[in-house]
């Protein structure tokens, strides 16, 4: 079922160009946003809290978006 976005916590893995755009856009809906990237970005810090890497991100967020290339 759907829900109001402001009630969700969103995790964004990867804060490159696309990840930053998603975070910026989601911030307008009032979501709580957590971000992870090997390199923290000052623009992202305006909208999201960086978190340490974890093997189980599912306990942190209601929605997880992944923007990391497989290497």
Strand content: 15-25%
Major sheet: order of its strands?
Answer: 3-2-1-4
Unreliable segments (pLDDT under 50, ≥5 consecutive)? none
Integer-rounded radius of gyration:
11 Å
Task: Quickly count the helices.
Answer: 2
Helix-strand pattern, N to C?
EHEHEE
The average pLDDT value, as a whole number, equals 85
Shape: globular
Number of strands: 4
Bin the helical content: 10-25%
Largest sheet: 4 strands, parallel
How far apart are the termini?
Answer: 34 Å
Structural class: alpha/beta
Oligomer: single chain
Describe this structure in words.
This protein is an alpha/beta fold. The protein has two helices and four strands. The protein has helices at residues 17-27, 42-45; strands at 9-13, 32-36, 49-50, 63-66. It has a four-stranded parallel beta sheet, with helices on one face. Helix 1 links the parallel strand 1 (9-13) and strand 2. The longest helix has 11 residues, at 17-27. It is globular, with a radius of gyration of 11 Å.
Summarize the structure.
The protein has about 70 residues and is an alpha/beta fold. Helix content is about 20%, strand content about 25%. The protein contains 2 helices and 4 strands.
Keywords:
71 residues; alpha/beta; 4-stranded parallel beta sheet; 2 helices; globular
């Amino acid at each position: 079922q759907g829900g109001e976005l402001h009630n969700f916590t969103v995790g964004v893995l990867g804060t490159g160009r696309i990840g930053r755009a998603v975070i910026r856009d989601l911030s307008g809906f009032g979501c709580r946003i957590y971000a992870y990237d090997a390199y923290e970005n000052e623009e992202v810090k305006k909208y999201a809290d960086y978190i340490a890497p974890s093997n189980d991100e599912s306990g942190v967020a209601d929605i997880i978006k992944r923007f990391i290339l497989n290497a």
